[in-house]
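During the reporting period the student researcher (J.K.) took over the structure-prediction task from the postdoctoral fellow and processed the backlog of single-chain submissions. One of the processed entries is reproduced below for the supervisory committee.
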Amino acid sequence: MSDITERDITLLEGYLMGAPDNIFNTFCVLAEERKAKIALNNILNKDPAEFFEFYDSRPIAAIRLLGCKTVKELVEKREYEILRIPNMGRKTLDQIKNALGEHKLRFGMVFND
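J.K. obtained the following C-alpha cells:
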C-alpha cells in the first residue's frame, strides 16, 4: 500500500462513487488517513533548512550543529538535547518549537518505520 499515490486515491474515489455507502465511506476515511500520512512523510523528509526557510538563520544554524539531515531526525531529539547546543537560547528554541507545532510536530516523537 505504500506505493499508492494521491492520484491513485482520487481515481479510486471516482470508481467507488456507485458503491454502497458503507464501502464508500470506509474508503473515504482510509483515503484521508493515507493522504495525511503522505503529507506528514513529505514534511518529515524535508531538509530542516527548507522547513525553516521563513525564519532567521539561528534555528537553521542550531539544527546543523545537531547534525540533523531531515525534520524527522530533528523531532526525534529531546528538548534538552537542543538546549545543549552552544549559544542556543530560549527564543531560538521557541522558534523551532512553534514551527514544528504548526505541523503538529514536537520534540521527542517516536516513529515506527
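The committee noted the following: The helical segments are 6-15, 21-44, 48-51, 57-66, 71-75, 79-83, 90-101.
J.K. will present the remaining backlog at the next meeting.
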